[in-house]
Write a structure and sequence with these properties.
Blueprint (H helix, E strand, L loop, with lengths): L1 E13 L5 H11 L5 E7 L4 E6 L3 H9 L5 E14 H32 L2 H22 L5 H30 L8 H24 L5 H30 L3 H22 L4
Antiparallel strand pairs: 1-3, 1-4, 2-3
């Protein structure tokens, strides 16, 4: 079902908006403004289109309070088509992507523990981080603000705690506990994760959506593909050099990525 809406379109440049966490932060900030009819994000160009029938200055002030370097670039009167069918399709795809990410979080975590691979354990936490972000995107509609903020707080704290435990284990192994990971498991499971993330990327691209949360999800899945390749390369280096250092290095890199994402998620709980 589709409907036409007459409205104003104001466009912002948001200098510090470069991942789904900033997108969710903005969505949560503006969600209580009933005058806003639609938000369109472009993470690659760091721009935000706001379609509304209210006070442009009020929206600009709300964005400015987030300290993301936002500034209004232009505004105009528009009439646009809003499709509720498209939203339903996007929700279905996001649920599938969330399920795949959470499923591989469990698979990689269990395999990583038994194969003694910090790379797999770290990658599992990255998959969990993605699942949490997708979940929070789905919660944006139909939930009260306090519940969303609690989810963001718990998600961010959990990720940081798990990542810090992982980093402490990496340090322990660097300092002398020689634990050789099973490189076959590293390569095999990471290849499966690579296939899974490639499927997620394909599903997201199929929607042909220009909406922010879908574009952000595509960026997340593309980053996951790169991380999966990194773990595979680390596994090959472990096999080639018969040394656990490549596994520890890739583990540190991914744990730091998880912590960076968690800090951004914690902003949503403020």
């Amino acid at each position: 079902m589709c409907k036409f809406a007459a409205m104003k379109q104001i466009t912002f440049r948001v200098d510090k908006m470069d991942c789904p966490c900033e997108e969710n932060l903005i969505r949560m900030k503006l969600q209580d403004d009933s005058s806003i009819l639609k938000l369109e994000f472009n993470l690659a160009e760091r721009t935000l289109n706001v379609f509304h029938n209210g006070d442009s200055e009020k929206i600009a002030n709300e964005l400015a309070s987030l300290n993301l370097g936002s500034h209004l670039t232009h505004s105009k009167e528009v009439e646009t088509l809003i499709s509720t069918d498209e939203d339903s399709t996007q929700r279905k795809v996001l649920w599938v992507v969330l399920a795949i990410n959470f499923g591989f979080f469990l698979i990689e975590m269990i395999t990583g523990i038994f194969s003694k691979s910090m790379g797999l354990i770290a990658d599992s936490l990255d998959m969990l981080a993605d699942a949490l972000v997708y979940g929070m995107s789905l919660l944006v509609v139909g939930a009260i603000v306090s519940r969303k903020k609690k989810v963001a707080l718990l998600s961010g704290v959990l990720q940081i705690l798990l990542a810090l435990v992982g980093l402490s284990e990496v340090i322990r192994r660097f300092l002398g506990l020689e634990m050789m990971p099973n490189f076959q498991a590293m390569i095999g499971i990471s290849m499966l994760a690579l296939i899974a993330n490639s499927i997620c990327l394909w599903l997201l691209h199929r929607t042909q959506s220009k909406d922010a949360h879908m574009r952000a999800s595509i960026i997340f899945s593309a980053n996951d593909v790169i991380i999966n390749v990194g773990v595979i390369v680390a596994g090959l280096l472990v096999w080639w050099f018969n040394n656990n250092i490549p596994d520890l290095i890739i583990g540190v890199i991914i744990f730091l990525i998880v912590i960076r994402g968690a800090i951004r998620i914690l902003k949503l709980s403020r």
